[in-house]
Design goal:
The chain is 42% helix and 18% strand. The protein is of the alpha/beta class and 222 residues long. It has a seven-stranded mixed β-sheet with strand order 3-2-1-4-5-7-6, sandwiched between helices. Strand 1, helix 4 and strand 2 form a beta-alpha-beta unit. Helix 2 runs antiparallel to helix 5, helix 3 packs parallel to helix 4 and helix 7 packs parallel to helix 8.
């Protein structure tokens, strides 16, 4: 039998080594509790991973789908150079308001723009406003339309754009093609589309830790 406690212990070990105390991030995590926001943000280690990926691809223009309280937003925005910009899309006005407070507290007001409304409605506007191509796109919004989000990500990309999608393994439930959960069906459609898209080089990394068992898809536009 797998001892899942070791996953959390190792996650904490890594976090203590590489993610020392940070007032802005700690306040953001606290706001999730005090403002009754779903506790589904990425973990500190995943945040640091996104931060490193943003630096690796020298991102100057980042798109995020799914802001929540702004935790992942802050991690990625901190990797931007002077003049860099991150646009984040959030459906819930309350979540967006809390995220704005957290982003302001982190000193990232000038680098981050929150757009409120359905991502599927806001994405065409980014195209119409010619705000693309993005250097990095992080998909972490509602799961049923993940495949559609990916299709829009491709339209807003360029060769070399890095596309990341979180929560695509769902505790292994994607192994069951008959699973009726809408979130599982959504990421299952996304995973199949990602694998069948010739214009990207992609894979999925399983993740374990404080967020239990899931996975993160990573793709680069050819």
């Amino acid at each position: 039998m797998i001892n899942t406690e070791i996953f959390e212990q190792v996650d904490s070990y890594i976090s203590n080594l590489f993610n020392p105390g940070d007032e802005a991030l700690a306040a953001t995590q606290l706001s999730i509790v005090t403002e009754n926001i779903p506790s589904i943000s990425i973990s500190p280690n995943q945040g640091k991973f996104l931060h490193i990926l943003a630096k690796l691809c020298n991102a100057k223009n980042i798109l995020e789908m799914g802001t929540l309280a702004g935790y992942s937003t802050i991690w990625m925005a901190r990797a931007l150079p002077e003049g860099g910009k991150l646009i984040t899309l959030e459906f819930d006005p309350h979540h967006a308001a809390v995220a704005q407070q957290n982003i302001d507290r982190a000193g990232l007001t000038d680098k981050v723009e929150i757009r409120v409304g359905k991502a599927i409605d806001n994405l065409p506007k980014l195209l119409a406003e010619r705000l693309y191509p993005f250097d990095m796109i992080f998909i972490d919004a509602d799961k049923p339309p993940y495949a559609e989000y990916f299709e829009w990500a491709l339209k807003l990309s360029r060769p070399g754009t890095l596309i990341i999608a979180d929560n695509v393994i769902r505790d292994g439930k994607v192994l069951d093609p008959g699973n009726g959960d809408d979130m599982v069906k959504g990421v299952h459609r996304f995973n199949k589309l990602l694998a069948a898209t010739p214009g990207v080089t992609a894979t999925i990394m399983q993740t374990v830790g404080v967020k239990e068992h899931d996975g993160m898809a990573i793709a680069i536009v050819n």
